[in-house]
Amino acid sequence: MHQTQKYHQQHRSRYLEELLDLLRIPSVSANPAHQADMIKAAEWLQDKLRSAGADLVEIIPTKGHPIVYAEKIINQNLPTVLVYGHYDVQPPDPLELWDSPPFDPVIKNDRIFARGACDDKGQLYMHIKAFEAMVATDELPCNVKFMLEGEEEVGSEHLEDFIRERKEQLSCDVILISDTSIIANDVPSITVGLRGMSYMEVELTGPNRDLHSGTFGGAVANPCNILCKMIAQLHDDQRRITIPGFYDHVKELTNQERIELNEAPFDQEAYAADLGIESVYGEEGYTTLERAAIRPTLDVNGIWGGYTGEGAKTVLPSKAYAKISMRLVPHQDHERISRIFAEYFKSLAPPGVQVSVTAHHGGAPAETPTDSKAYQAAAMAMEKSFGKKPIPARAGGSIPIVALFEEVLEVKTVLMGFGLNEDNIHSPNESYGLFNFYKGIETIPYFYKYFVDTKG
Ligand code: BES
Ligand code: MN
Ligand code: MN
């Protein structure tokens, strides 16, 4: 990969300029106002994949946002790497908390600040540049397929049909994804577990209209009060989730596995200080590293109802709402969890309020093996570029499509991400380190090489 790395050196600044162009496209999948930007981003990627050397590049429309597919098949007998990434980003709100506009990227302190800088535009673009360099230097050692979607941040609703329909075309030996983090720039790691997700919305209705809180207060159930009480009942004093049967299929790690997990470098005081909190908080009997990766959780993402405008208005509201998500671990089934949540939540309501529960997206948790050739290749590639052996680490976030790849394509994934916890993904002032961007571009070609070498 000597020529490839030399090529990288010569094209470093162009790589970055191009990424900044991509970051200027506000491809927010959740917001219909950005429909045209989604298409613009897909076309931009199509163009870059073509000039990087893909033989076939396609934009596949879906009922939602388009999928960009590309491939370069150099020899049917060689292994095939399928790269997955997502070009959609989270909404940038709240805008007023950004130090610079989210879609006007700036470089400060060796970091790129923009929505999507790390999640996932910066990371997917590393793959396109690594591919370009390998093609340009004639060092591409195997076949490559790219599948870049625009709906990851809203639940990948239309990707499942796509991979089922195109099962043949997507056949590959490994799926490679950079959409996760490393522990630190001097502590490289490879993600070996992702949590699943069940995302619910609840609506409580009390009286048929908003009421004067003096005339009626005390005599009529207030849906906002009741909602808070019901939500509070979803955890017990040990901070365990109270939904009957919720923990039934949770995979408990062995003591040895827990010891290993907790050996990862972690400074709890620095963690709390960075977040501006006095203390951490979570399920009794588990460490912070465990709580945020191998234990299921339930969180209110948003809650509203009644009067939230300026000043004070005395009102007993008719309605109250909350968006509640649960992070799941192996071997919880997200459809079952959504169902038992709805049943239990409704059972908590007193007479006088009506409850409706709807499910948004869900996704299965995933685990990736460390004893596979693909994992070994990723570990060797990172050791080569970082000068240090990466450690396997479980992540708390979710990429629901990983479990689907395994089910439909029957192929395992390697989660070789380069982000950091401090990148503020989904938050204001998202950023991605230049070090991480270039380190990813440097590492990826080694993965290809070692993967092909060990495949024989
Ligand atoms: N890239 C993240 C997931 C992630 C982040 C995994 C950090 C590991 C470490 C992904 O884009 C994401 O945000 N996923 C959503 C999934 C959801 C919308 C179904 C998530 O985790 O909230
Ligand atoms: Mn992502
Ligand atoms: Mn994300």
In brief:
The protein is an alpha/beta fold and 456 residues long. The longest helix has 22 residues, at 2-23.
Topology:
Elements: H1 2-23, H2 35-52, E1 56-60, E2 67-72, E3 80-86, E4 106-108, E5 111-113, H3 121-136, E6 143-149, H4 159-165, E7 174-177, E8 189-194, E9 196-205, H5 223-232, H6 255-262, H7 268-275, H8 288-291, E10 297-305, E11 319-328, H9 334-347, E12 354-363, E13 366-367, H10 373-386, E14 391-394, H11 401-409, E15 413-415, E16 431-433, H12 434-455
Parallel strand pairs: 3-6, 3-7, 7-15, 8-14
Antiparallel strand pairs: 1-2, 2-6, 4-5, 5-16, 8-13, 9-11, 9-12, 10-11
The structure holds ligand BES and manganese (II) ion (2 copies).
- Determine the fraction of residues in helical runs and give it as a percent range: 25-40%
Ligand inventory: ligand BES, manganese (II) ion
- Runs with pLDDT <50, length 5+? none
CATH superfamily of the largest domain: Zn peptidases
Strand order of the largest sheet: 1-2-6-3-7-15
Can you put this structure into words, describing what you see?
- The chain is α/β, with parallel strands linked by helices.
- It folds into two domains: 2-194 and 365-453, Zn peptidases (Aminopeptidase); 196-250 and 296-360, Alpha-Beta Plaits, CATH 3.30.70.
- Helices cover 33% and strands 20% of the residues.
- It has twelve helices and 16 strands.
- It has helices at residues 2-23, 35-52, 121-136, 159-165, 223-232, 255-262, 268-275, 288-291, 334-347, 373-386, 401-409, 434-455, and strands at residues 56-60, 67-72, 80-86, 106-108, 111-113, 143-149, 174-177, 189-194, 196-205, 297-305, 319-328, 354-363, 366-367, 391-394, 413-415, 431-433.
- It has a six-stranded mixed sheet, sandwiched between helices.
- α1 crosses α12 (434-455) and α4 runs parallel beside α11.
- The chain is globular and about 80 Å long.
- The protein starts with a helix and ends with a helix.
- The structure holds ligand BES and manganese (II) ion (2 copies).
